Each structure stands twice: as structure tokens, then as C-alpha cells.
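can u do me a favor
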């Protein structure tokens, strides 16, 4: 993945949000005039305080809700293979094995396990859980459950993966490890990611673009470019460049919080 900003701007568009508003119950404005272009291969973090519309934006992109105004357009149209979603909780079926949980997107399309077994095993290999395909969620740690959820989102090799604070409930060591793993997985399957987080540090480590949002109404107030090259490792986390980018993103986040006050 190139970090050259000019290269990123030349990549083909996956989707675009144009002047999107979302209002609930007639008067609760969750989003106002949100515009965002998502290019192929982007890793975009939506960073902002609670209530700024980050998760609402993801739901709109996923098609789980519709804009009150504006539009969301997919380049070339949207198909069932275009989207994978990872929620804040792993949302695994407790009665199903790891392999059966990863099979779920195919099952919903009427495809038998036998016909996609290789794809399921490949996804589990990607997240390092190929030896746990017959295990049940109750037998897994929190980090392992999230790996299963990520494998399920990636198994169909979607164009875009939406991730709604997937690591927020995990301890810091596990979170750092999964951050590292996520970048490796993205490089392997070549997808585009939109990632919701409250963490400045996480957003800088993962992203090439950080979209900072303010609340009441939810809106974009700044975009921070992270031009550090991929792959990123521990030395990036301890570099002066990382510290400077964290300060810049933190300043933008504090401004967002003041604007929402």
C-alpha cells in the first residue's frame, strides 16, 4: 500500500457520500451535510466524540438505514459481495462452531458449507485460527472471538469492510496485536476499510486518512492525512512522526469536542 498522497488520490473511487443528512424522530440530527469520498485501498478512520454520528455513517453505508437528505453512490453499483461488517461485539452464534460462524455469509446466500469450505479455511488461516475451526465461541478468548468476526467479514473478499469499534472492549496488549494483524490482513486481501474509533493512537497507527467528526449535529470538521508507509510496525509507534501525527489528530479531536459542547 503506497503512502504517496498523489497516488491515493488517483485510485479508483469505491463510493461517495454527498451532502448526507440523517435525522431521527423528526428533530434529532445525527448527521448534517456529510461528504466523503472513499477510494480503493483506503484505510479511513472515523474519529470523534460519542454522538457525532460515526456509527450512523457506517449504518448508512451498509444500507441498514437511509439518508434523510443527500446520497451515497457506489462506483459501478453495489453487489452482495461488496461489503463486510465487523461490529463492536463479535456477535457470534454460540451454538455454531468457528467454521460455521465464518460460513454464515455464504449460508445466507444459499451456498452449502461443502461448496465454500476452502474459502472458510483460507479465512481462518488468515487470522491464525485454522486449528480452531471445530471450537465453539465459549471456548475462545475475547481476541480470538474478534478474529473469527474479522474472518467472517473477510471470507467473501469484499471491496469494503466496515468496522465499528471492534477492539474497544479488549485489553491494550490484545488491541495492539489485532491492530498489527488487521493491517497484515488488509494487505493480503487488498480491501478498503472504514474504521470507527475513539482512539487517536489507534487511528494514527492504522489509517492513511483520519476523518475527524464533531457532534450536534454530526459533521466532518477536519481530515488528517497519515503519509507513513505501510507496512507499519512497533518502530512506527515509537517514532517522532507518529507522536506528531497523534498530537495533530488529538488537537482536531479536542476542537471537535469543543464544537459539540
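np, heres the sequence
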Amino acid at each position: 500500500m503506497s503512502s504517496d498522497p498523489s497516488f491515493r488520490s488517483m485510485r479508483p473511487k469505491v463510493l461517495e457520500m454527498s451532502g448526507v443528512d440523517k435525522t431521527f424522530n423528526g428533530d434529532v440530527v445525527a448527521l448534517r451535510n456529510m461528504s466523503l469520498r472513499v477510494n480503493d485501498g483506503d484505510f479511513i478512520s472515523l474519529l470523534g466524540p460519542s454522538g457525532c454520528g460515526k456509527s450512523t455513517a457506517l449504518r448508512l453505508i451498509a444500507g441498514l438505514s437511509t439518508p434523510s437528505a443527500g446520497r451515497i453512490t457506489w462506483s459501478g453499483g453495489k453487489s452482495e459481495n461488496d461489503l463486510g461488517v465487523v461490529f463492536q461485539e463479535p456477535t457470534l452464534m454460540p451454538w455454531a462452531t468457528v467454521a460455521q460462524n465464518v460460513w454464515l455469509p455464504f449460508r445466507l446466500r444459499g451456498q452449502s458449507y461443502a461448496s465454500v469450505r476452502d474459502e472458510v479455511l483460507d479465512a481462518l488461516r488468515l487470522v491464525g485460527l485454522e486449528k480452531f475451526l471445530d471450537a465453539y465461541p465459549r471456548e475462545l478468548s475475547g481476541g480470538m472471538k474478534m478474529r473469527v468476526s474479522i474472518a467472517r467479514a473477510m471470507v467473501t473478499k469484499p471491496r469494503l469492510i466496515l468496522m465499528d469499534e471492534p477492539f474497544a472492549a479488549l485489553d491494550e496488549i490484545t488491541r495492539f496485536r489485532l491492530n498489527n494483524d488487521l493491517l497484515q490482513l488488509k494487505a493480503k486481501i487488498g480491501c478498503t476499510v472504514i474504521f470507527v474509533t475513539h482512539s487517536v493512537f489507534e487511528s494514527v497507527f492504522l489509517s492513511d486518512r483520519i476523518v475527524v467528526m464533531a457532534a450536534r449535529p454530526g459533521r466532518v470538521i477536519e481530515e488528517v492525512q497519515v503519509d507513513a508507509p505501510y507496512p507499519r510496525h512497533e518502530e512506527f509507534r515509537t517514532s517522532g512522526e507518529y507522536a506528531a501525527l497523534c498530537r495533530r489528530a488529538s488537537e482536531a479531536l479536542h476542537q471537535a469536542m469543543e464544537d459539540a459542547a
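The mean pLDDT is 90. hope that helps!!
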